[in-house]
Amino acid sequence: MYTLQTSASFDSAHFLKGYEGKCSNIHGHRWTVEVTVASESVEEEGQTRGMVVDFKTLKDDLNALIDELDHSLVIEEGSLREKTREALLEEEFRIVELPFRPTAENLAEYFYDEMEEKEYQVVLVKVYETPNNCAGYSR
Length: 139
Fold this sequence. Notes:
There is one protein chain. A six-stranded mixed β-sheet has the order 4-3-1-2-5-6, with helices on both faces. It contains three helices and six strands, in the order E-E-H-E-H-E-H-E-E. By secondary structure, it is of the alpha/beta class. Helices cover 27% and strands 35% of the residues. The protein is elongated and about 55 Å long. The protein has one domain: 6-pyruvoyl tetrahydropterin synthase/QueD (Tetrahydropterin Synthase, Chain A, 2-Layer Sandwich).
């Protein structure tokens, strides 16, 4: 089994509605996402001969997902009062609403699913919200 791993980082703010503690307040992270993909074989012909996939392609696909969240307020759908949401949008803040609570665990599963949709055989995704704390997701 061959494995490849790449990582990318993004900056965003979030909060955890219903959490009792500091994380209930808006705060930011420099998130790092590590993706590990696998294959039983390498390409036999062409430019990618001897490779599972070109690292550039893998990095570009991950970075496309990262760019959607970079420098935004990442929130769970319905977690802001409509007036608050409207005021932030009126100020031209970028809000990304997700159908789940934006925890490292849920983001790891999100990136796993998104990379899998791009037809990678994903083995593991880790999401670091600090250099020392990460959550991983695999199937």
